[in-house]
């Protein structure tokens, strides 16, 4: 019997089956967000008559995405282990406040960077300790910490905006500090996540913590590693925030935890982690969100409508990129 | 009812009310020592307490509808904005008065909940993720509608009833009765508890988990809208915001909800428990504000207590185990000593 005859005799696959086969392909989770990003760029490129392809536009998109991208890359470590932390925006705000205070006291930019990063690490490790040692769910810790860190920042700053020497910020920005720091951090995250045993352990623990524990892995140690790596990213994002505006206010970081989650999910990663997690989803998602925002603005849509469109596109992409369980979604099914 | 049952029931009720009473007594003493006035020193204080308690209670109950079944609905705050802004403004246009505002807001809030529920059941994406998406969409609508003004009740005619103590009390009683029936005595409530135990087992035993889920979302939408109306009546206006700012109301009502579930476990009634939690937290807030502390300082105290409470809740079984272990060791040591004495 020839191949053609065999194919003729085989039952025809339905569209759902075909979609399922495509979605279950190992490279789908990587290619899907890239395809979406390219599609958005192409659509807006066509809609703006090619203006969207300008170098300045791409630089603008990258500059907008860099803070969210850094944070999303950072939290991807936490999400991978199956934990959630939506307090990163407020943690970043507190780190930025500490960094700005240190600069204003010492006038030393290096100390500002170091103190912001150390603050980021310590605050994230505090969140982790609440979860690991005291057993409080990481999402509950995050909800408390959003309010607590925000209140501490408000207490320190009051109604005022904490100004930092604008000239110093401009120098750091022009010297390409943001790009260099982001690239170094991104490479570090990529290496730790994809090329070390620690990264493999994080993914394993996110997939099945009990099984990982039984194979001799220390889930608590892995959680500390993930929060430590996230802390570095949060600290760096705090520095980026300071040098972008030369100031820190109580508004900094508000709602950023959600933006970060949005970017991570748009980048093709499940917020419940597991084997399909990666370190670049956050960056891809942040670029997608920025490109979408920029494109919609260039087309002439108001910021209010942009938010609505962003929400609808977000839900559509997540729906297309996720499994549909038989019962209602629970942690085990995702 | 025998003596033991009565005694057990009395103990349970005592455990339920001891926290709000303790908070009141502690702050009554502190406030009197520091400012010379008690926590509730005027009718205005009582009105503030009632309004904030009912707002907090409705929101915490709404969160309780879904959260215990593993669904953290982050769009609840945005549903509140949708319900109040659309329902409130339509009622004002037709001059339906305070009750009209409340009813229409609840209806629109419930419709928003229905939309989220139907989408959740059909799309079956994670509740948190769906919540984020729906927040973005709802905020867009509520911000864009009515010239970005939101809902303004300050100075409006026929809306004074929303600040009336008797009316607030009546609504609170009605809510408690309806919620107790729905959660404790209706088929919906039984099914909800079964699903809370195990979704798979509940589905296998014939419970329609999808219908129950949609009803939970509808109920939550109606409750948050109710909370929003009383909050607006208290503040005068409800200003819409973008950038997921509505999530703040979800997070700020988590403490009374968790506290309420714990208190409710004593009487096996989360509806009454959440009321206890709301009263405790609002008494705490009122007591702190009487001390003229800044809003951020108050938040630091409140959320530190929340954290301590969560640590206690998570580790209470471990503490109990350690206590029992201590008793066991002591008993073993005493037995050994007695035997040693007998032998010698």
Automatic annotation (TrEMBL), chain A:
Q: Topology relative to the membrane, per the entry?
A: Multi-pass membrane protein
Q: Which GO terms describe its cellular component?
A: plasma membrane
Q: Which UniProt keywords apply?
A: Cell inner membrane, Cell membrane, Membrane, Transmembrane, Transmembrane helix, Transport
UniProt-listed Pfam families? BPD_transp_2
Q: Name one GO molecular function term.
A: transmembrane transporter activity
Q: Where in the cell is it found?
A: Cell membrane
Origin, by domain of life? Bacteria
Q: Identify the main location.
A: membrane
Under what name is this protein listed? Autoinducer 2 import system permease protein LsrD
Q: What is the lineage of its organism?
A: Bacteria, Bacillati, Bacillota, Clostridia, Lachnospirales
Automatic annotation (TrEMBL), chain B:
- Cellular component, GO, one term: plasma membrane
> How does the UniProt record describe the way this protein sits in the membrane?
Multi-pass membrane protein
Could you list this entry's UniProt keywords, alphabetically sorted: Cell membrane, Membrane, Transmembrane, Transmembrane helix
Where found in the cell? Answer: Cell membrane
Statement: the UniProt record of this protein carries the keyword Cell membrane: yes
User: What is the designated name of this protein?
Assistant: Monosaccharide-transporting ATPase
Annotated GO MF terms: transmembrane transporter activity
**Pfam families found in the cross-reference section:** BPD_transp_2
What InterPro entries is this protein classified in? ABC_transp_permease
Keyword hit for Transmembrane helix: yes
Q: Where is the signal peptide?
A: none
Question: At the top level of its lineage, which domain of life is listed?
Answer: Bacteria
């Amino acid at each position: 019997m020839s191949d053609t005859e065999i194919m003729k005799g085989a039952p025809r696959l339905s569209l759902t089956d075909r979609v399922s086969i495509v979605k279950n392909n190992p490279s789908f989770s990587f290619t899907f967000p890239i395809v979406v990003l390219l599609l958005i760029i192409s659509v807006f490129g066509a809609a703006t008559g090619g203006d969207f392809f300008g170098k300045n536009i791409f630089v603008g998109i990258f500059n907008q995405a860099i803070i969210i991208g850094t944070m999303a890359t950072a939290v991807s470590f936490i999400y991978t282990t199956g934990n959630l932390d939506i307090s990163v925006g407020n943690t970043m705000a507190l780190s930025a406040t500490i960094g700005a205070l240190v600069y204003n006291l010492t006038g030393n930019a290096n100390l500002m960077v170091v103190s912001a990063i150390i603050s980021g690490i310590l605050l994230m490790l505090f969140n982790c300790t609440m979860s690991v040692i005291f057993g409080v769910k990481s999402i509950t810790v995050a909800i408390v910490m959003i309010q607590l860190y925000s209140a501490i920042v408000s207490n320190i700053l009051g109604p005022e905006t904490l100004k930092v020497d604008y000239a110093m910020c401009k120098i750091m920005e022009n010297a390409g500090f943001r790009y260099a720091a982001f690239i170094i951090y991104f490479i570090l995250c990529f290496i730790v996540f994809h090329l070390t045993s620690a990264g493999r352990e994080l993914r394993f623990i996110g997939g099945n913590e009990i099984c990982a524990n039984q194979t001799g892995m220390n889930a608590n140690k892995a959680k500390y590693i993930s929060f430590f790596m996230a802390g570095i990213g949060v600290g760096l994002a705090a520095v980026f925030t300071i040098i972008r505006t030369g100031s820190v206010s109580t508004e900094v970081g508000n709602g950023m935890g959600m933006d970060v989650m949005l970017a991570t999910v748009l980048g093709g990663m499940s917020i419940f982690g597991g084997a399909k997690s990666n370190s670049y989803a956050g960056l891809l998602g942040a670029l997608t969100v920025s490109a979408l925002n920029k494109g919609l603005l260039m087309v002439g849509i108001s910021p209010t409508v942009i938010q609505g469109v962003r929400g609808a596109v977000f839900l559509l992409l997540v729906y297309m990129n996720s499994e549909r369980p038989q019962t209602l979604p629970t942690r085990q099914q995702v | 009812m025998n003596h033991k049952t009565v005694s057990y029931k009395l103990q349970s009720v005592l455990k339920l009310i001891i926290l709000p009473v303790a908070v009141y007594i502690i702050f009554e003493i502190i406030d009197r020592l520091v400012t010379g006035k008690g926590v509730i020193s005027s009718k205005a204080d009582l009105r503030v307490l009632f309004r904030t308690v009912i707002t907090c209670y409705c929101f915490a109950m709404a969160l309780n509808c879904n959260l215990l079944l593993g669904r953290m609905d982050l769009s609840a705050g945005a549903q509140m904005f949708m319900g109040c802004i659309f329902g409130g403004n339509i009622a004002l246009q037709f001059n339906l008065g305070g009750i009209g505002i409340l009813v229409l807001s609840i209806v629109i809030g419930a419709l928003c909940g229905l939309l989220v529920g139907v989408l959740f059941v059909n799309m079956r994406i994670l509740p948190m993720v769906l919540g984020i998406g729906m927040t973005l969409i709802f905020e867009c609508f509520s911000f864009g509608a009515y010239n970005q003004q939101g809902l303004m009740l300050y100075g409006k005619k026929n809306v004074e009833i929303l600040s009336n103590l008797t009316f607030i009390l009546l609504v609170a009683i009605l809510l408690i009765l309806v919620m107790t029936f729905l959660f404790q005595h209706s088929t919906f409530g039984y099914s909800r508890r079964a699903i809370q135990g195990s979704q798979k087992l509940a589905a296998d035993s014939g419970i329609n988990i999808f219908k129950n889920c949609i009803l939970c979302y509808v109920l939550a939408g109606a409750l948050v809208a109710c909370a929003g109306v009383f909050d607006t009546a208290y503040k005068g206006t409800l200003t819409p915001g973008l950038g997921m700012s509505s999530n703040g109301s979800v997070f700020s009502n988590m403490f009374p909800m968790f506290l309420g579930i714990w208190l409710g476990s004593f009487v096996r009634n989360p509806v009454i428990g959440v009321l206890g939690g709301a009263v405790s937290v609002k008494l705490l807030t009122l007591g702190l504000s009487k001390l003229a502390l800044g809003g951020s300082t108050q938040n630091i105290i409140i959320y530190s207590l929340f954290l301590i409470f969560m640590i206690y809740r998570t580790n209470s079984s471990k503490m109990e185990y350690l206590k029992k272990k201590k008793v066991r060791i002591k008993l073993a040591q005493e037995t050994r000593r007695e035997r040693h004495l007998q032998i010698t």
